[in-house]
Amino acid sequence: MINVSKGWNENQKNLTVFLKNQKTFAKGIKLLLEMHSLLHDKKVYKTSAGTFYDNLWENMKDETCKIISDKEMSILWDIWHITRIEDIVSNIIIGNKETIFNNEIQSKLNIKIKDTGNAMTHSEIESKNTVMSIIDCICPAP
């Protein structure tokens, strides 16, 4: 698997170039999907290759993913936040349908908000970290 300093940054630059040119647009979409596949559980793309997502959770402890950085975020919050954004964009904006994050999942995860959490305060993130666990991110509710 590529890493950020060797491969990912180069691919990111190439992606920008490919998507700006109609002749290389299809190549850009192919690269976009390859890069996207590295950001999810390998089961999403039905591959055996490791992904950044898989590597993140390997040997991760629940308390580690709840540490709030000086930017007032935790790994747990970041994963939830990014997942909410992708859910909203993929389903509401692109698919014109309901999000996967519904009332049932919201209740199971004990999360009070439905948005992406951009305006959450430090204490709200701490509170969310308390009620959610690493298992909620790795094995989300169906």
Layout of strands and helices, then pairs:
Layout: H1 8-20, H2 25-37, H3 52-57, H4 75-94, H5 103-109, H6 122-131, H7 134-138
Q: In a few lines, what is going on in this structure?
A:
This protein is mainly alpha-helical and 142 residues long. The chain is built from seven helices and no strands. The longest helix is centred in the middle third of the chain and has 20 residues, at 75-94.
Structure notes:
Helix content is about 50%, strand content about 0%. The chain has 2 domains: about 10-55, no CATH class; about 65-140, no CATH class. The chain is mainly alpha-helical and about 140 residues long. The model has no long low-confidence stretch (mean pLDDT about 85). The longest helix has 20 residues, at about 75-95. Helix 1 packs antiparallel against helix 2 (about 25-35).
Which structural class do you get from the secondary structure elements?
mainly alpha
Q: How many separate domains make up the residues?
A: 2
- What characteristic shape results from the CA principal axes? globular
Beta-strand segment tally: 0
List the total number of helices: 7
Question: How does the major sheet shape up?
Answer: none
How far from one another are the termini? 29 Å
Give the proportion of residues in helices: 40-55%
Give Rg in angstroms: 17 Å
Poorly predicted residue ranges: none
Name the helix and strand elements from N-terminus to C-terminus, one letter apiece: HHHHHHH
Strand content: under 5%
Mean pLDDT: 83
